[in-house]
Amino acid sequence: MTLDERLAAVVPHERQFRHQQLEFYAFIHFTVNTFTDKEWGDGTESPMIFDPKKLDPEQWVRAVKSAGMRGLILTCKHHDGFCLWQSKFTEHSVRSSPWKNGEGDVVKEVSDACRKHGIKFGVYLSPWDRNSPLYGQGKAYDDYFVNQLTELLTNYGEVFSVWFDGACGEGPNGKKQYYDWERYYSVIRKLQPDACISVCGPDVRWCGNEAGHTRSAEWSVVPARTRDTEKIAEKSQQSDDAEFRQRKITASDSDLGSRSVLENEQELVWYPAEVNTSIRPGWFWHESENDKVRSLDELVHIYNNSVGGNATFLLNIPPTNEGLLHENDVRRLAELGEYIKNAFGENLLDSAELSADNDGISAVRTDSYGEYFSPSKGVTTAEITAEWDVPVRIGNIVLKENILLGQRVESFLIEAETDGKFTEVYRGTVIGYKRIVSLKNVTAKAIRIKITDSRTEPTLAFLGVY
Ligand code: FUL
Description:
By secondary structure, the protein is α/β, with parallel strands linked by helices. It has helices at 3-8, 14-20, 33-36, 57-66, 106-116, 139-154, 181-191, 229-238, 242-247, 259-262, 296-306, 327-343, and strands spanning 24-28, 71-77, 120-125, 161-164, 196-199, 205-206, 221-223, 268-270, 273-278, 311-316, 353-356, 382-400, 409-418, 421-428, 435-454, 462-465.
């Protein structure tokens, strides 16, 4: 097998394929920190402070949906250990709070609201727990963690994502906990086999920063040991083993998947990236940040480069201490949704004549995987032309590979015909699940897409011109 054949042979698991198609979903950071104005609680917070008097998860879900998001992940327990549900295994939860006289269940209300409004529900459960006296006691804490995981994955319907944070420090007794990840994973696979395990998990990869930065070439096929980065980070800090340190890969390396990075790797995996960032500076709500909600331009930029850069986009919006999303965030979400709807509303390809250097190009007109375009066997380039009767103004072009057959395209370029001649308007690297090319309004009678390099015959499942 040649290197390119090996790379092209790695394909997504069904659950990863489904997850990538969600594209854009919400993170909700909400707990005692919302009431203490902190980002990390230390576990000594009194549950008495938790009292979101106007809590309305349906308001959250409506706002999230207005932005075009298709799922929501809730911090059921953050590092402070406070549980947003009626866990049987600790008193440090909503049960000990004044909210709804200790009878409320935030996880239930949120998962019900998601289901009612037709979006997916996911759970964030922090392995690091600064409240539990069991933390740092090995199996005793793993048992506790698995019990909580079991509650969350049994009592709240279908879960699409289980999000494990890499942040880890010392517990209340100053001890360190070495997590039994394999045991956690097997519980998830048994109880929710369709859920993706993200970040400290094998299905979805952390993009390497929390600021919303994206790579220009994001590969979904990466070294298998990338999956261990969070876990080996700890080990490598302590290790004097020079070889180990040298071999280390970190989630924020600028290149995780080019041919030269992969050529000496023993084991490769499909491990697609997720870009996670907050709509505000903090993950939790702070009154002082009400006027620091990211601008529409910034959000559009991150959206285009994550969803349109072969990654998914997990955007955090933190509810206030009343239990509502703040009007400034709600407004921005609606603006973003409007932008996306308008920017990708009308596909100009519908009125174009399409041609290519092989048969079957009409398959790219429908956004589906059943039919796709590909050149003849062994050919690793392609040329596709779209032509209109009269010149059209183009803002964005969307390209999608058929990732069910792997990620193949290494480079492509786009030319536009103006005044009778073609000139290059864009030169890009990977496509993957989706590439959004923003052209800033080019007026053209025709465009030509040239795939200039591919690991094996390239595929194109969809082409959109807007
Ligand atoms: C980090 C955490 O420490 C932050 O509080 C937040 O939850 C973020 C998503 O992940 O590692």
